[in-house]
Amino acid sequence: MANDPIYPALVTDALAMVRYPGTGRSIIEQEMLADDIRIAGNTVSFSLVFDKATDPFKASLLKAAKAAVERAAPGADVTVNAIVRQGVPAPEKAPVLPGVKNIIAVSSGKGGVGKSTVAANLAVALAAEGYSVGLLDADIFGPSLPKMFGLESTELYMHEVDGRNLIIPAEAYGVKVLSIGFVIDPSSAAVWRGAMASNALRQLIEQADWGELDYFLIDMPPGTSDIHLTLVQTLALTGAVVVTTPQKVAIADARKGIAMFRDSKINVPVLGVVDNMAWFTPEKHPDERYYLFGDDANVDALAGEYDVPVLARIPLVASVGEHSDSGRPVATEATASAAAFMHLAHELIDAVDRRNSELPPTAKVEVR
Ligand SMILES: Nc1ncnc2c1ncn2[C@@H]1O[C@H](COP(=O)(O)OP(=O)(O)OP(=O)(O)O)[C@@H](O)[C@H]1O
Ligand SMILES: [Mg+2]
Question: 3-class SS at 177?
Fold first, then answer.
């Protein structure tokens, strides 16, 4: 015996009799019926939409809906699916460092080549040029900026900005400074698990009042590490500056550092390399140059290989290290090395401008 034809209103009328126990209202009133009713001969299928996958009434409601349609269309083959409503989109997360124009990682392949010295003096030189500058010490295993800026006894305070409690960066030589060394005891850093270190670092970025900055410099740990990954996932870096010395071993490691930023998954533009300790100049004979670690050709070859500029060559001068140790970056004084850092600042400004006019903003690396 042929059944009466099934038509959509038969289904919706039947479902109008089924109540959602949570509210007592019908499935139709509740707008739980999806827009996908299919009727083909004797078979009917449709879906009910639930707000949550864990709706406590889901199973009983699917059953009740099926039974109601089967009653209205005896002999029909009824299938009811459950759809979970695409969650109301979560409010957009506050953008990270909204007031910061350029974020630059100061990195190296090898440790001890002068990353922190370059980052600190570059920051001071940029600030001396009138730019607003922030400097973050991300080297969890050897934070050295507190000492270089004479900020070892810094205690961090927080204040409220737009309803959020934010860490106030320390300030020295016109530069806003935060160091992982302010929040962890460096001697215990080695036992910090990667995730703890990454979280602490993210806090110093996201929960600090960096305000409006022209340049935000990050003193990176040496090599390639979890911290590098955390940073490219947290921040859209404008670019990276890679510091090396002319020594072959340092250059070999710098190559790895450049390759990491160039990796297609990371994709951070390398703005240039800095040739640190390019030559030794005795304080008393400022015109003399002694190439202790190799000549300019070594770093030139590296830069040529990756088609990036050598932004500056910084001489090895005793006062650079002495100043760092005494908490006064050398770029604050009128010396030959200060001039080299000032030159670096100007080259960096140009390199950043070129990058910003030629390339779109860097995308953050998505966490999978
Ligand atoms: N141009 C320079 N002239 C003299 N001394 C320098 C120069 N650059 C760096 N130094 C000294 O070399 C040492 C290492 O420098 P720095 O701490 O900046 O290196 P780094 O790459 O940050 O090291 P790490 O990998 O440990 O973080 C320090 O004692 C510093 O004072
Ligand atoms: Mg360092």
Answer: strand
